[in-house]
Amino acid sequence: xxxxxxxxxxxxxxxxxxxxxxxxxxxxxxxxxxxxxxxxxxxxxxxxxxxxxxxxxxxxxxxxxxxxxxxxxxxxxxxxxxxxxxxxxxxxxxxxxxxxxxxxxxxxxxxxxxxxxxxxxxxxxxxxxxxxxxxxxxxxxxxxxxxxxxxxxxxxxxxxxxxxxxxxxxxxxxxxxxxxxxxxxxxxxxxxxxxxxxxxxxxxxxxxxxxxxxxxxxxxxxxxxxxxxxxxxxxxxxxxxxxxxxxxxxxxxxxxxxxxxxxxxxxxxxxxxxxxxxxxxxxxxxxxxxxxxxxxxxxxxxxxxxxxxxxxxxxxxxxxxxxxxxxxxxxxxxxxxxxxxxxxxxxxxxxxxxxxxxxxxxxxxxxxxxxxxxxxxxxxxxxxxxxxxxxxxxxxxxxxxxxxxxxxxxxxxxxxxxxxxxxxxxxxxxxxxxxxxxxxxxxxxxxxxxxxxxxxxxxxxxxxxxxxxxxxxxxxxxxxxxxxxxxxxxxxxxxxxxxxxxxxxxxxxxxxxxxxxxxxxxxxxxxxxxxxxxxxxxxxxxxxxxxxxxxxxxxxxxxxxxxxxxxxxxxxxxxxxxxxxxxxxxxxxxxxxxxxxxxxxxxxxxxxxxxxxxxxxxxxxxxxxxxxxxxxxxxxxxxxxxxxxxxxxxxxxxxxxxxxxxxxxxxxxxxxxxxxxxxxxxxxxxxxxxxxxxxxxxxxxxxxxxxxxxxxxxxxxxxxxxxxxxxxxxxxxxxxxxxxxxxxxxxxxxxx
Length: 752
Hints:
- This protein has helices at 2-41, 96-100, 120-130, 169-187, 197-211, 225-245, 253-299, 301-371, 374-384, 391-398, 408-412, 419-447, 453-504, 512-515, 522-543, 562-567, 575-579, 588-593, 615-618, 647-660, 665-668, and strands at residues 60-71, 76-85, 90-93, 107-109, 115-117, 151-155, 162-165, 596-597, 749-750.
- It is built from 21 helices and nine strands.
- By secondary structure, the chain is mainly alpha-helical.
- Helix 1 runs antiparallel to helix 6 (225-245) and helix 8 (301-371) crosses helix 9 (374-384).
- Strands 1, 2, 3, 4, 5, 6, 7, 8 and 9 form a nine-stranded mixed β-sheet that branches.
- 53% of the residues lie in helices and 6% in strands.
- Strand 6 and strand 7 form a beta hairpin.
């Protein structure tokens, strides 16, 4: 039935994209005008006190370690070596040895739009709601059973799902923090550096959804432009697809659910390919017309501004009286409640960022006093430079936003979810942490040449820390106030537009002759001027409350430290190369193996599940819960070794492992761990918390190995590994069969 639907789906996708591209072309001109006007007039806000890292950290790995993945094709769990590079793509290899030998990865996952679940029950609830009327009867096996009590599931409303599990709760918490950081980063896929394309795209999305009478926040504004557009198309296609295909699915409830997930993923891939081609063509056309448009804008700037103000004044005269009544009756009474709900968790999160930064620097200073020397400073500074990218250490900051609840306000203002605001605040937290760290290391690097001995070094670190904290307090206050204003507008403006739409539709035909679509000017007429006047007093009033630790708007620091910003223009600091005393150049392979890792590893070697079990056994109706098998009296030399349980057994196994690895120097010489911590930390469990099994043997001659023709170059994971490049689906309907991970290694799954 999918083959028959191929042509109608492509036609529907083309229609949706055609409407969007018309909106995009209009908004591209508006965004270009605003960009040129800002360039000419300038209207910058307060100057940031902290330095911003201009060259991103690209030589580190966020995390790497072993994790069990469920392979749907053979219905078995397999141990995989997962690497999270600096671009936050999830890259899964056959094992650690395959990564070290630069073999092609098995799976590449871009986690934009995914949710991280740590409970099978949560997952089953989402799966059951995705296909109404298809729910397994009680007593029957669900679609998924996990062999341990610590699952990690990546769920997406349209794309395929990924199933993982680990052995301990500590591992689960660590992987959950890593996965959530990947989702958070990939969701923020539209570059804010673009002053024309990015605002044109987001405004076009908003305009398109408003044309469909969808005014509220949208959870699927996730990923890069092609991913967001694919989500937009799937939002319209899915109900029709569910109605058409749902009744035709055969088999038990679990099989129908599994088939539906595969069909949805196949359609999503087809939509993605068509969307990418059509959007790229629309962008290329706008870029081609940009020079002429920009020339016209610069020449006629005064006339355009005059016409815009004339049109806006006429619309405002018609709409503003109704808007004021609506705001007074339906919005203003709730602004304080919305602001309080936003400010409390956000301020706590930024306070925690400050505390984490203070603690890390203070601990470093104390350890330098105890251990001494510039060598230790270099070691600690390399770790500190990655603090903002440490998912586990930053988790205490991020989780403060979990308290954000809008309660009844969420229904009143048509806010589908608070996740949009949570993730935005968390991204600000990470950026402020990185700015504080970068400012600290820049100032400390400048001071090093003037210091005399250990005591001077420690006093200088303390003095610089206090200086950076003052700058952080000012910048975090500015960032939070801006975030609060934007969030209030994002909540209230869609509500106002929805309320005013029925009474203002008469405007649509009145002024189109002069302005060309005056109705589209209405949101921009209301949002920046009139409604913000209602929002700003509430933010200013909250700024004087000491519990939120916000500076008043009257407190503005102008060029308080001009020399500092000149330092930020210099070459990025590489503590290891500058102070390590090792002039020898490293090969690319050695640098890859010794890439700095932000999170220390819990489980570095491959392990085995408490019991190896396939899905055929797990999915048997009424099958008992799997139990760990008893150890045989006479161990079979050919059997795979199980994980040791006792401390003595662990030590014996590790001793045997160290002897056995003498013949494999390439494995023994590679350690994917960060430099040793100055003291044990509760938030970073040690490697000894998980039993280590002997490493897997190298593939025997003739065994199946990943094919070099998989299309992946054997090199350090690049930005392409976040899935932005996918295998071409061509123009036929046959590729609608879901592309999947293959155990034979003949192909590489590249997720979006």
